[in-house]
Every structure is written in structure tokens, then in C-alpha cells.
Amino acid sequence: MDDSTKCLLALSSVGELALKKKHTLLKSVGDPSELAGERKKVKDILGEEHAKAFFDNLENIDELAEKLAREDAVFVSYLDDAYPENLREIDDPPIGLFAKGSLSALNNECIGIVGTRHPTRYGSKVAEEFAREFALAHMTVVSGFARGVDSIAHKACVALGAPTVAVWGSGLDICYPAEHRGLADSIVLNGGLILSEYPFGAPPLQYHFPERNRLISGLSRAVFLAEAAAKSGSLITMKLAIEQGKDIFAVPGNIYAAECEGNNKLLMEMPHALVISPEGVLDALHISREASEKEPVELSIAENIIVEELKSGEKHFEELLAATDLTVGELTNTLFGLEMNGIVENIGGNYYDLV
Amino acid sequence: MLASLKSYALDGLVGYRVDVEIDINSGIPGYDMVGLASTATKESKERVRSAIKNSGYMYPAKHIVVNLAPADTKKEGPIFDLAVAIGLLAATGQLESKSYKDYVFIGELSLDGNIRSVNGIMPLLISAMQDGHKKFVIPAENATEASFIEGIEVYALGTLRDAVDMLSGVVYEPVATSDYSRAAEAHPYDIDFSDVKGQTVAKRALEIAVAGGHNVIMIGPPGAGKTMLAKCVPTIMPDLTFEEAIEVTKIHSVAGILDSSIGIVTTRPFRTPHHTTTVPALVGGGMKATPGEVSLANYGVLFLDEMPEYSRHSLETLRQPLEDRKVTVSRVMRTVEYPANFMLIASMNPCPCGNYGSKDQVCRCTPQQIHNYIGKLSGPLMDRIDLQIEVDNLSYDELRGKQAAETSATIRERVNRVRAIQRERFKGLDIRTNAEMGPKEMAKYCAIDSDGERLLARAFQKLGLSARGTTRILKVARTIADIEGSENIMPAHLAEAIQYRGVDRKYH
């Protein structure tokens, strides 16, 4: 690690320090390595406390580096080649990133997926299907690792063994939300990447999340909104994406559900963002995807009727019962067979849908 | 003078004879009751005095001693009032006839001399009859309850004066015996399965459950109709036989919840203890070791609405009755055994807010909250519940204009047929239904072929089921095969049984 990187790591490791101050400080010197000798300047710009923390970090820089290594994490400063090109172009790029996993995940075209932490069934399905299709088209899905849409998108990629990028709002040693610890591991195992601007030990503070959002859009070529309520952080991300000059996409929401209001609000203002299928996004981005040939499965008459029925959307068991003329036992059986063959899915509450 | 009368007291569901002895001595007027009488029993002193006075008799100004023998068992309640009063009148010569020696007296007195009804007449009379007693004087209000017991002569009287008159030779008609089947006909269930619209999956699952004696848990959002479905379950269970009815009536009579105008329980009980219920209320106990909800639900259904809301302790105490079909209640002075042969139907929301996995509602629970909610249902308890069914509410439109639903009677016929198959199968064993099969019987009757094995393995892998559920899937598949009239368990039966693992699938 050269002196400049050391200084940047020390600076990045100062907790709760405004990004603006870091930039001001770095602009005041020619090369970051000069900071080590500029005690007064650092103190003037950062203030007493933060300056002390900075120099303390600098003194114990080997310890910090060791800690990173122990957690299999790396520090990437803006001076590094590995620093994501996309981030260099945004207004307030982080001076360095803590990363865990494969940085090569960022070499693919990246697309951000954002949405509510409490998705409806519809929102969950949208997030899952779009993430899957993007991954199949060799795009890397970038999202925020939160509950709901974010984690659904990550999981869809992981399920395919595809890389995905999770941008955290806390230090890499603090998994938030904690129940996603397993997901974090599988993201890394599947060639994905976990990124954070915050040093080890940084808690997931509220103001971290809007800051994190600018990285999600910043890393991506386009951002896709799965589902958002009228007042939602996801809408902020969409706005940031527009400011950063990214393409944005959103599916229309159920006009009766408050959880979808954000989508419709966005689409009223930006009608061109409207998409109704993953292909719509891929076409707009001129990304081709080799059509995957699904193996044709021989279906019985009853199975055919069920599949035809489900083409118009999810159906309750009772509705299928009325449509097929089977007994309860027979229909249960037929549905089970379709489920085993991966054609139909029981989505809970006796509702069935095509996979 | 001394008078000795026969009365009966209850120990659990079994009555034992209590001799009420009254002796009148000269000396300072007073009243002593000996023989481990409880407060309610001791207070008979005042009731008896007023009743005697207000019936127009004379209360002696002497020293009265009442002994309740055997002297070493605790006597509860006011049921000896009548015996004490008659005894007093006999001992003071106001009742000259000695015919009281032939009767067993049971009844509480009110101050005006009326005989008030008591709890537990059915078990008291049955025990007394088994001990060889033939003639009884009981409260008039308990007449119907007593009328179902054949082979005894019961006089149900309204007042102390009536009792004295009868013993002195005035002719009173004994209670005429009633016919159980007529009573059962006159008091049917007030609910029918055809009242439940839609819910075909749940209905089918409940039919399977009743046919095979399986316990059930229903998962669904509030308002999905779980309670309504559960209430209908007794209506498709085989008709309550007279012997079963007597058994149930005994328990309900002891607990004091018997409808005295019907006098016998004609429908299978449906008990719904609230989730704040205490352990003694659930399994029985209290000072008098009274029967709990599990015993009141004997031969019927115990419905635990919102099962995860019950305290863990209460849920765990259900394990013994579920296993042994009876429950032992121990208290300082006594240990009582009550039958507890019930079908357990539990219901739960999918999560604390109720919207997890819902079609158009949003669930606001954190994964941790959902985890904790499900965690309340312990493995050992869930191991005793064979079917897990999902219930979802359909909108009004979907409920309308569907073909008429089957009536309970139609379903019950099928259930009876399947129960008969099981009786034949388990002849000579202490097992009545598929749900009660042990490992030995399962090896014999739940064999599946290689196709079935493959299907199971695939389902486990694809649906993330736990191997812990295998036993339950096999038992349920056995019942489904019985319903379909199949000798062997076919893959189709297994497939259907796997569909009834809703909890496992939803939360794996």
C-alpha cells in the first residue's frame, strides 16, 4: 500500500465525517500523501476531533489493513484502477470504497433495482422476474441489500449463480439487516460484490441510506423501480439517477394499492420510463439476450387447461376447480405435478401462478 | 334419636357413597358437622334450619351432630343438604316412616324449602346404580338428566315438603326414562357444512382429518373463515353414540355446563378456550380438581384459535392428553383422571399482522417477528398435528353463484365408511384410527412403492420440506387412500398428503 492510499484509508476510516470535508481537504493538497505532514491544515478543515482520529488512524494504518484482510475485504481508493469508472462521473464520488467479493462483477453492464421494503405480492414478483431476466442477459444487478425488493432482487441473482452487487449503508463488518447474513455470504460465493463507503464499525445510520442510494444509481447504467409508495427512498434514488443522467425504468403499479403509488407518480411525470416487461428494459438499453429454449413438456388435458387459465394471472384453487371440472383430490394432484415440473407455483393462500 | 341416610359424593367422575348420620342430644342447643366438610358443606346448617322452618316443620332446640362418613374424604358442595334435612326430621320424629332408608338423597336446599339442582347428577346416579342402589330422590330440575339412566327409580322433587310427603306414603310418579335417539333428533347441530361457501380445499382436508382422526392446524389471514370451518367439524364426525353421550354428559354435568332442559349432550362438543386461558382451565385442576377444556371437548373438537397466542406453558401441557387421550389432574388431597379424547383443531395467522403472503395486503412484520411467531409452536406439539392447511378468504364475487356445497350428512356418510375400514384394519389393537398408528403399524399399512419413494424425495428437495414430516405425510396418505377406496398408498395419495404441509412449506 502506497502512502497516498494509506492516507485515503485513514481518511475513509474516520467515522461520521461529512464527505464534503473530505473532498475539501483533498483539494487543498496536491497528492493525498501530503496530508501526513499537514497537521494544521487537516485540523482547520476537519476540526479537532476528526483530525485526531485521522492521525490516529494513520499511525495504526497497519492494524486497519490487517483488519480488512482478516475480513477478506479490500480498500479501493479513487486513485486505484479498480475504482468503478461509473462512480468517477458522479458529482460527489466516495474517496474510497470498502469491498468484499469480486470487483469484476462491475465489469458487466450494471442495472440498479430499487423498491419498497414491504412489497406486495405483485412487487415481489416484479422484482424477482426482472432481476432474473437481467441476470440471464449477463447484466449485474445492483441493489441496496434492504428487506423487501432489494433482497428479492439479490436472491434472484444468487439463485442463478449470477453476480450481483450489494451496496451497504453500514460498515462491512456490520450486516444490516442481520437476518441477511446468509444472503451476504452467498452473494460473495456467487461472484458478487458487497460495497460500502463506510469504515468498519460504522452503524447503519439513517442518513447513510440516501448517500448509499447515490452509489446504487452511480454504479449503474440504468435504474429500475419495482414498487414504491408515494413517499419512498426509492423515488429519491430515481431522482438521483435522473440527475446523474442514467436511464430510468418503472413498471406501472396497481392503482388501488398505496404501496404502488410511487410507481404511478413517477410514470405520470416520466412516461418514457414505462416498461411492462424485462425485455422492454433490455431493448431500450440495446442489450441482446439469446432466447433460451424452454424444453417443451408434455401436458395432459387437465394440465393444459390449468396452464391456459393461469396465463391470465394468478388464480385461486376454487377458480381452477370451477374451470377444470376435477374433484378436489384430482386437482390437488395435478397442481402438485405441475409444481414438481416447475411449471406452476403455489404462491400461498391457495393461490397458484405460472413460474 | 339417631338417623342414618345414604347420599353420594363425587371423586372426579366416579361417585362414592356417603352416609349422612344425624344424632340429636339434649344439652346446649348447637350444631356440629364432622367428616371433613368443606365450607359450602358446613354452611348447610343455616340452609337446613331455614328450609325446615319455612316448610312448616320444627327445628329442634337441641344439640345436633351430623357426621358424613367416610370421615377421611373431603366433602365438597351442598349436595348433602337434603339428606341432612330429612335426617333431622326423622331423628326428631317429624317423619315417622322408615322408608328413607331405601333411598339415596341428593340435593341442595334453598331457604324457602325448595330443592335446588346440583351438578354431576349423571355420574352420581350411574355410580350409585353400579353399587346396587335403586331408589333416588333428586332435585326436580335434574329430572331430564336422570331420565336417560335406565333401571333405577328416580323421584325428582321440587320441595322438602314433597320429599317428606313421598316418604310418608303419598304417591309420586318416578321420572319416566327418555329415549336418547329422540333427544338427539330434537337437538341437532345448529350449523352445517353446506353453509360454508367455497373453501373446498379446507373442507376436503377437514374431511380427511376427521376420517383418519388427525389433528389439524389452519393458517390464514383474519376473516378467512377458520372459526366457521372448525365449528362445522363436529357435524361431520360420526354420530355420538349413547355410550359416548353418557360419557360426555358426565363430564359436562360435573363441570356444571350441562343444559338441564336437554339433560344429555346430543352433539359432539366444540370447545374454544380463549388464548389467555390458564393451565388449570385447559387441562383441569383448581381446588376441586374440576375437568378442564380438554376433557370438556372429549369425543369432540378442541379449537385453539390463534394458537401462537397461547402461553407456551399451556400449549406444552396439551402433549400428554394428545398422546394418552386422557389427563391426570393431581391435587394435594386427590388425583383424578379425566378422559380427554378430542380432535385438536388449531388456527393461526400467517404472521403477527396477518398479511404475510396475502394477495393484496402488505405484511409489516419483520422476518424476526415472523420467526418468533412461528417459533411459539414447538416441534413436539407440531409433531402431533398431521395436517396443515392454508385458508384464504375469497372476495364476495367468488363466493356467489357456485354450485351448492355438500351437506354435513353426505360427508359424514363417507367418514363413517372410512372409519369402518379402519376399525376392520385395527381389530384387536388398541387403535381406532390411522392417526394413532405407531411405527409397527405404519410399517405394515403405510408401505409405498419405489414410485412413491421417488416422489417423496423429489418433493422434499423441491419444496424444502423437513424429513420430520414424513410420518405425518404417510399417515394422511393412508387416510386418503382409504377415502379413495384403495388398498395401497398410490403416488397420487402421497402427492395430496404433501399438499397439506402448509406451515412447513410457507416457513421453510
Describe it.
The complex is a heterodimer of chains A (355) and B (508). Chain A is of the alpha/beta class and 355 residues long. Chain A has three domains: 70 residues, no CATH class; 182 residues, Rossmann fold (3-Layer(aba) Sandwich), CATH 3.40.50.450; 54 residues, Winged helix-like DNA-binding domain superfamily/Winged helix DNA-binding domain (Arc Repressor Mutant, subunit A). Chain A has 16 helices and eleven strands. In chain A, helix 3 crosses helix 4 and helix 10 packs across helix 11. Chain A starts with a helix and ends with a strand. In chain A, 46% of the residues are buried. Chain B is elongated. Chain B is 39% helix and 16% strand. The termini of chain B are far apart. With 508 residues, chain B is α/β, with parallel strands linked by helices. In chain B, helix 8 runs parallel beside helix 18, helix 8 packs across helix 21 and helix 20 packs parallel to helix 22. In chain B, the strands form five sheets. Chain B has a five-stranded parallel β-sheet with strand order 11-12-15-10-16. A four-stranded mixed β-sheet of chain B has the order 1-2-4-3. Chain B has three domains: 166 residues, Ribosomal Protein S5, domain 2; 242 residues, P-loop containing nucleotide triphosphate hydrolases (Rossmann fold), CATH 3.40.50; 72 residues, Helicase, Ruva Protein, domain 3. Chain B contains 23 helices and 16 strands. At the A-B interface, helix 15, helix 16 and strand 10 of A face helix 8, helix 20 and helix 22 of B.
What is the CA-atom radius of gyration of chain A, in angstroms?
A: 24 Å
State the end-to-end CA separation of chain A. Answer: 49 Å
Helical coverage of chain B, percent range: 25-40%
Q: Helical content of chain A, roughly?
A: 40-55%
Q: Number of DSSP helices of chain B?
A: 23
